[in-house]
Records
---
Amino acid sequence: MKKLLLLLFVVYVPLGLTAQSVKADWFVFNILNSGMKSNHVNMVAMDKGGSIWVGATSQDGGLVQFDGKDWTIYSMSNSPIPDNRVNTIAVDGTGMKWIGTDGGIASLNDADWTVYHAANSGLPTNTIRCLVIDNNGDKWMGTAAGLVRLSGTTWSTFNTRNSALPHNTIEAIAVDENNGLWIGTSRGLVRYEQGKNAIDSKNWSLLNKKNSGLPSDAVSCISIDFNQNVWVGTKDKGVGMYDGNEWKVFNKNSGLPGNAVTAMVPDDRGDVWLGTSGGLALYNPDGTWKLFQSQSSDLSNDEITNLVVDIKGNKWIGTDNGLSVYKDGGLAFSTYTAKHLFKSEEIARNLNESGESYETLFRGSGDPLKGLNVATAVKEMEVGSYYALIIGIDDYKGVWSPLRNAVNDANAVEKLLKSKYKFDVFHTLTNEEATRVAIIRELEWLVDNVKEQDNVFVYYSGHGEFKQSLNKGYWVPADATTASTSRYVSNSDLKSFLGGIKSKHTLLVADACFSGDIFRGSTIAVPFENSERYYKKNHALISRQALTSGGVEPVMDGGRDGHSVFAYYFLKALTENQSQFYDASELYNNLRIPVINNSVQSPNFKPIYDTGDEGGQFIFMQK
């Protein structure tokens, strides 16, 4: 492994940008105001920590990383990157970056590089045109000599001789929820059903304009939306959307600004963003379009090369003349980043992340015991970082009636934990932010980033549902407007994520109807004992527990002081606690009777079956 010498550039923005509106829906990065070395943006990607990566096609462009404060440049002159022309980048489940270039593929983990090319690996050629990582962690690369898979250390190449691929030049690859591959070529679209013999042509399906509704065989890009519709962009005939049964075709006559489609990405609202050679388009599932072009907006150029939506909902738009960023209603930058970009305190205060610090948005490791007044015996507990994911939804639509107290409950929980208890990282979703995609994305982030000594607290306040026909309970996200479970988050999904998070302790607190359905199977826990030995023992044992506001039953939204009954006594117990250590079982014991006596619901607290619980306890530690 080679070590990297980093070159850092602090963002400089001309003073003229202070004339922008206070809402600041747009911002454009270029070689004059950033660390970018070329205005031609070939690719844009986001890593697990929220950093944006930008690749260029020019030989002097290289790869740059923007973490919200600094720009880091990776080029052949200061790093082992095999070529300065960067075509694609993907991030695997460990956070490692895989970078496809004209000179091979490189993996980057912190400052450690590994480079693969035709001379030292199974690559048939050095130019990597596209790259995805499937649900098993295998890397799939598109080249001009076929489709290449790297599984562990094993390389395989599929081409016109040993598969149903109609052409060896691979233009695009996408992975669906069943781990199926969709492969775009200049002679049509191919789907490969993984898990079956790849050499058997029966496991490959070729779709082209002769046997399907695909508008053109010249495929340029592929994207799969929230509903698993497959969007296939073409180089000359617009885009085809395939729902598994039928095709819909959209082109300039439908509302696209151009028929050469270059990039597509869905957002967490269910909309699809499409980049073309004539501008940017937003497609709403209701069939309406919204266009963005350089003459009528702050888009830097109509030649769109790449699109990505970050965790805050900002759209990063690669063009032939800079990197544009857009978010309707105001860019969601941290206050720290906004001050540096816009040179305006007023704009910074009015952006969506008002009051958030640099450290909050871009997380460092830090000392997990910093600021704790704990004894040496407690330090031996190896206390890791504390993560909180807090979700509150009032603004429901469609068949779901709005709630009154859920967001207030969530905000109050966050405020209390920040002020009194040791918590290092907060992720909060309220109202329209709390879509199904956003919730799943945050849970995936926890799976990918939490370490074995860390602690995770998840709080959900909103509607819950129980489907008798399926014998299953659900959370109801903000974008669920019908009674269909397709927009819900099931308790079985939650159990899978909670089991996958590599924390020492995870506590789920759910204040929703039918939340007690999360408890399936028989579990036991270590009896409470108020002693240092008890806390050390329970901290040493892994725990996966849930505290719910009720069983498989409706629970109340109204209560006291603007909170639900459950949230009121939950907050009261945490507020009145005077102990340095306060575990979840004590918390439950202190709120259970008041909730029962003041409502028609009965809180539950148990380990979650089959998620890795070993009898430990989540411990709230005072600062």
Note: The radius of gyration is 26 Å.
---
Amino acid sequence: MSLRIVDRETNAARQKEKFEKILGELERESIHIDDRRQRRSVFAVQAYAALCGSREVATDDLEIAQHCLWVEHGQQQTVAHIVARIAEPVGMQAHRLQMTAEAILKATDTHRFTEALKAVTKLTKLDELFGRLKRTIRVTQAHEQLKVQLRRMRQASSHLNDSDDE
């Protein structure tokens, strides 16, 4: 039982350290977060963790801080980037994989067999990376979307291969 308490204390210290590092990076970017906003951000992170069914804040829960720690609208992207880099929440990892998949699909001429086949290979690698992520609702939804895109691309490449045989 004492190991669990030590683990909780270690986890809390780790999350606090990451949050403070986020604040330090924001300060270096000339984004000053006052004490009141900091407290409200901590409450938002704690509430997010509770709504996700956790009794304590995990690294992934820091993701919500990106919506609380900006002062001016133009700072949103910078804040999101800093939170993603430091906290590296699984939802942001999933988003990055999803954006990569969309870029692959956009760059692929589905009427050319070799391009479609290369896209299938790349999407299959992304599918494997998704499989390694911690399962959350957001990750599952993004992974399912990738699977649909991968199935369509496989069907398209199969159809192109069949038409090449004829």
Note: The radius of gyration is 21 Å.
---
Amino acid sequence: MVTLNGNGNHALPKRTEDYLTAGATEGSCNAELFAAACQLRDAGHSPSEAEGQLVARYVADGCSEREAVATIRSAFSRPPRDPIPSPRDQVDQLVNRYGRRDGEGARPTVDEIREAVKACATLDPLAWAETRKQLRILAGDTFRTQDLNQMYQQVRKEVNRSQAAESMSAAARYLETETGIVYEKMTERGLVRHPVTDWTGRIVEWITRVDDDGQEEHIMRTQVQHPMHTTTLDIPSELFGDSNGFGRFITGRASGIFTVFPAMHRHLPHAIKSLSGTIPRKTTYRFLGWTEHEGHRTFLSPGMSVRALGSLMEPPEVELENRLSGYGLVDESWEDSLAAFNTAVAVFPPHMAGALTAFALLPLLQRFFPPAAMRPALHLVGTTGSGKSEIAALMTSFYGQFTRDTPPAQWGDTVNTVEVLGYALADALFWVDDWKPCYSDEKTFTRFLHAYSRGMGRGRLTKDSKVRQDRPCRGLLLSTGETTIEGEASILARMLVLEIPPWEKRDPGAKKLAQAEILRLMLPGFTAHFARWIAAQMEAGTLQSHLAREYELSVKGYRDKLTVQLGRQANTGRVIGNWAALITVYRLLRQFLEERDADDALPTWQDSIVQTAKAVQEERAGQVFIDTLGQLLASGDVRLVDLDSDDDVKPGAPIIGYQDQRFIYLLPEISLREVKPTQSLNFTTKSIGDQLREDGWLLPNTADGRLTIQKRLRGNRAWVWCLKREMLDGDTEDSSDAEAHEPHQVAVQV
């Protein structure tokens, strides 16, 4: 049984009563306060009762009331221990139980004596001497006085050690001094102070960066200050859980003067965090484009964001790389925005103005197209002074403030840099200037363009051999250069190449450009109005189905057009998809302008899909192989043997195959061997044969579908490609130009 005081709480130990009466010595105020708060908690006092007794005592010792309240609440946040029984009560219970019994067996057990001594651990030596006499009488011959003293001293040490450890853990804290950060704690030997750094640091802002897919990245913006240098660092939050990495990050970014004292690295993250107090939070978005914000489809950009109801009064903060600082929509009136649109479009070459306008605004709609829709890139090629950079700058100015001398990126950057910069432009045009073959080899550029068209980034591993999140180039790629990007057909199929005519032929004196420069700052306002209209279509639930329907019709129309113009079905699916995407945007833009009675501002639609398809066909491995073979035959470097002739084969140029009146029987491996010294082809005979079969020139084996057939030639059996003879003769309609046919009208409705 434990005696309660008059308030129904358990009795307090003498140490706590002494603290309430006399306070604590200098340097131990916080430790004594915490110990007293724990005893009040264990005795059954409420937090408010404890604050009523302890705060005034702590303030009287020269400390702050706020610190007192924080320490008391920390003590009460832990579960209470069993209350300390009154030693006098426990001894009196033993006397009442055994003091009046007679006989040798009327003695307390050893465990009962030990529990009584343990209860006396908080008694001072004088009080213990009085209580010991009673215990000695009760114990009889079981314990001597010396034995009782030893037990008392042992349990007293254990209690003091336990209280000291608890007090020390609560008393440990970090201080910011004139010489740096100091770790202070209470030990059995008193107050100990360890220097952590000779500089100070505080977290000034907790930044949450949000991507358009909802992923969050937490950054702790930290100011570090040394007598010689002060700087601010954006520290990834995960480093606060890696003390060694945390210190290396600060030293590497701030300079070598920001070091940590030996054996104190583990204290640095917690020290900076504890010294920072209440940290203000901020949420930023690390991309430009569409997202779901406050339940509405919203287009976010630096400085201004827009939804169906208009621009946001308090737009969320959009934080982009310094190289992308020019991006940002503006809030302009419709009249000023339309005037800027008219002057910008007037600068574009008339025969490609419709396509350039559609490509410039395609980023606003690209993510709403069907998943199978193509994602084109555009390359503007022209000589120095042709105005290709001015046109690219105007197209990019639909999304911000750009000039010919301020492109977001250039091909002189590494491909990795281009990908990282383009990743933030989720729904914007990304202009990469000045392409030259010396900047990017064919292999690197091919990999980049393939990854771009598929929405994939370069795969990388972390230091733990785990796949790192890739960051593909998401901005719609607009490239410029003085030379045409040459390469395999897959590159040309993914990138539209438009040649910009000389400047003097379309804008003598650059008068149209001067007018566009005056209104260039208002051009992003047109994009804001168009984005608002798109958001309204999204909320109405009609945009995606409309785009899917229009895109499908455009693909069919262009496929029919190529079939008629090229005389046969060409394998140009990506080319068709690219132009279908542009004309779909053009139609939607016309609908937007018609609703505002401004459709006369839209330039006439013209495309160059036939020329693009021909260029792709010419770069296909099969076509390059056949063209080179034709040149070798014409020069006499190789020859075909005529099967209809009875003449003997005379020595001379290498034989690559045989022919009759209908077919050419080509020896594939021999032919490729002869072609390679003249034309570098990174293809096998199988890939070349597959393309020739797709183009309708190669007749496969009807038995098993193989590319080769077995045929007896001049008494020998050989596996050969069976090709249509007109492939080299060029005397059939299938391979002739479109001009050889009667005119056809193909409806690709605009």
Note: Confidence is low (pLDDT under 50) at residues 1-6, 731-750.
---
Amino acid sequence: MKTLPLTLAVACACAANAPLPAQTAEPARWERQARRVTIVRDDWGIPHVHGTTDADAVFGLIYAQAEDDFDRVEMNLLNAMGRTAEAEGGARIWQDLRIRLVTDLDSARALYRRSPPWLRRLMDAWADGLNFYLYRHPEVHAKVLTRFEPWMALTFTEGSIGWDIERVSLRELEAFYGGQEGGAGGRAPGGGSQGPGDQERHGDGPGEAAAGGDDGLAMREPSGSNGMAVAPSNTAGHHALLLINPHTSFFFRAEVQVSSDEGLDAYGAVTWGQFFVYQGFNDRIGWMHTSSGVDNVDEYLETVTRRGDVTTYRYGGRELPVRRSSVTLRYRTAAGTAERRFTVYRTRHGPVVRAAGERWVTVRLMQDPLHALVQAYTRTKARDLASFRRSLALHTNSSNNTILADADGHIAYFHSNFIPRRDPAFDWTKPVDGSDPRTDWHGVLSVDETPHVVDPASGWVYNSNDWPWQAAGPDSPRREDFPAYVEAGGPSARGRHAVRELSHAHGWTSDSLRAAAYDPYLTWFERTIPALVRAWEAASASDPLRERLREQIDSLRGWDLRWGEASVPTALAVFWGDAVSRREARAARAAGVPVEDYVATRAPAPDLLEALAAASDSIAGGFGTWRTPWGRINRFQRLTDDIVQAFDDSGPSTPVGFTSAVWGSLASFGARAYPGTHRWYGTSGNSFVAVVEFGDSVRARAVTAGGESGHPGSPHFDDEAQRYATGDLREVYFYPSQLRGHTEREYHPGE
């Protein structure tokens, strides 16, 4: 570690927070562009941004984002560039190093210079909008980024809740590179750890009921999404319908509309700091992304040899040099700023991320930020299925599936947009031999070669982060038609629920699709509650748990498996499900079956009853009695603008009826108790919900978690909390005529 002298460190820290040193001509140029932009705030505080050109619209969009939550804009960009430690200290060093293994800031600068002129104009406008905001708001103190550069947009092209590189274990990354001081070499062969990583992964992908956590026994909270599309043949109005329902951490995205005189007109959810609507719609087409269970990130076992200062790895009978590069990371300290320099290693496959016995492990994943940004932006301007498919031809939406509907009546499901072509003889779910040329990638599968379905006879498509083999009921893609690596996941309780809703209804309307999105049935308990009841019935009369749990069993036996604020069985079932899953997770993993299946068919009867006793005690300990309605426990609360929220039982909060998606609820609310609280507070799940109908005009209803603004003093900080908790979607003002009478303010950026 290299520590800067105290006087220099303090000077650097002061400089980092100094006012933006705008160049003489810049403010006048910014002012001119601002006059070409109009921002209309509706009565929910949502910005409707219009610019003369697309670049003007981008300028206004990012300015509006900065107005609403500059802190989140800055922190998302720091994370994307591997610079969070500069704001939050040395504990973030390994997170930053992981990012910098695949994001080189000098390369981003060069890539910006090679970008097509139209895209450079957008990136220029993006940086100008943020810099103009800081210029106009000297009271806002950036943590690190006091000046934004256009190339920075190329580091943040993934709008999803998590990125492919986040599958790399921080613990094992530190074990490999942690011994370095001042640029010393990495671990020698044989010096690393081996075994599974810490199971970090974006989305919920294939295993929303998988075991996780430090002890390997806790249920992991899903953070994926729901997408549904219904064809005109299956709707009452003969118009295509689309459900947009991302499950992310709360306040991860803003709700916006952005339009221009050059054909841009997109509405939906934009990730703070980006200039494209990630999940949304225009007047002709809508798109929804769900985290995919695709296997498209591969690990390679590298056989390395060290001779003095030269390190080689074996490939195809040859010894090739391991490439070295230097990464310098700065981090905040109590005295100012310090830095640490790492020598990182790479082979033809990618960066070294850990050791496994005598070998090093490299990771290979998609790295194409320029085309990723092009695809993310151009799909918002698609006018029909054909033009949307042209954007898919770039193959850079790696971690997500897509659900689509359009005004021409088409609906479609497209699986992950980046699937490397590989030899199916290998098990790609495990590290493969990097010395064997047969493990090389050979381009990518085309859209037609990947699981997808367009206009199925069933009249619907969906995805809930589960496998694609039931995406359209009987008209789904067939598993046997594709290599195993296109999907590493399986079915889920939430997926079964979606199919249950879509398979048994016809004549869909916007209202019935909204109702389906909030249907309270909890599929996880379909088989597990009967198993619990059977265990109680089989218990001997002398078993003390038989009498102690009689009333609880009666409550659950009479339950309709539907969540609700006033429901006592919901609370009891959720606490029991959590307790029994922790008890049985290790055995389920050893048996190679999902926890749900193990609890329903194999768990010892005493375990089921003891878990119910523990759940009853837990509820009673926090609330006085196990007969506590779910809504008294499960709450939405937003007290401060902190990115990591704090919760307080004495503060105002809103009851929420829906549960974690673990239990099969389509509407998801990931909540738990926190230090000092008895109540459970949500931090993830439903973050933006929209139901869209495409006809001669587009009509939509939507809700955002909490509210549009990140400022506690704003009326729009939590004005949507009650609507959010009850699924009461409000009208979307897409057209100027709809905004009449619903406008709070109209202005140009900077006014």
Note: Residues 2-192+297-364 form a domain with the Penicillin Amidohydrolase; domain 1 fold (CATH 1.10.439.10).
